[in-house]
Specification:
There is one protein chain. This protein has 191 residues and is α+β, with helices and mostly antiparallel strands. The protein has one domain: Hypothetical upf0131 protein ytfp. The protein has five helices and seven strands, in the order E-E-E-H-E-E-H-E-E-H-H-H. Strands 1-3-2-4-5 form a five-stranded antiparallel β-sheet. The protein is globular, with a radius of gyration of 17 Å. Its main location: cytoplasm. It is found in: Cytoplasm, Cytosol; Golgi apparatus, trans-Golgi network. One of its GO terms (biological process) is Notch signaling pathway. It catalyses: glutathione = L-cysteinylglycine + 5-oxo-L-proline.
């Protein structure tokens, strides 16, 4: 079984796997439209994490993990709790296209997608509003800022040829807000 990750699964799968491949799926755009009140936020201050939006001409880059034998049941149990029960995601099968030049046919992979019917679904907002929400949110897996920056780093280092305007616009908005929040003694003395 192959499992495709496009959010925190790209750097923290949390399950054992046999192999992994960087690549993409077609027909979806990654969006920070899913609320998170557990991993990267709280009930009072939900974080924002990614989901996929059907989008005919788009492609989303991420990592596919191959799980075999006893890894299958263990990984699916773990992901069903992490993504479906706690995150409100549904599962779909998609065609995954490995990045490797000599890659064979696309691989069928399982992917978790949050839909607008999900009670934690937040939907669209401006990049600035999403960044502002990310800045103030933290959950049991860590700060929401870490989630955003690790995902941007993954795209930058493993998929430099790919575009993800939504992701990088939110990262840019976050970076432009952060200097306003943190002052050193030196900077206060200069003003």
């Amino acid at each position: 079984v192959w499992i495709f990750g496009y959010g925190s699964l790209v750097w923290r799968p949390g399950f054992e796997f046999t192999s992994r491949k960087v690549g993409f799926i077609r027909g979806y755009s990654r969006r920070f439209w899913q609320g998170d009140t557990f991993h990267r936020g709280s009930e009072k201050m939900p974080g924002r994490v990614v989901t996929l939006l059907e989008d005919g001409g788009a492609c989303t880059w991420g990592v596919a993990y191959e799980v075999r034998g006893e890894q299958i049941a263990a990984s699916l149990d773990y992901l069903n709790m992490r993504e479906a029960v706690l995150g409100g995601y549904d599962t779909k099968l998609v065609k995954f296209h490995p990045q490797e030049k000599d890659a064979e046919e696309p691989i069928l992979a399982l992917v978790y997608i949050a839909t607008p019917q999900n009670p934690s679904y937040l939907g669209p907002a401006s990049e600035e509003d999403i960044a502002a929400q990310i800045i103030v949110s933290s959950g049991c897996a860590g700060h929401n800022i870490e989630y955003l920056l690790r995902l941007a780093d993954f795209m930058r280092y493993f998929c430099p040829q790919a575009e993800d305007k939504h992701l990088f616009s939110i990262e840019e908005a976050l970076i432009s807000i952060l200097p306003c929040l943190y002052y050193t003694e030196e900077s206060l003395e200069e003003t």
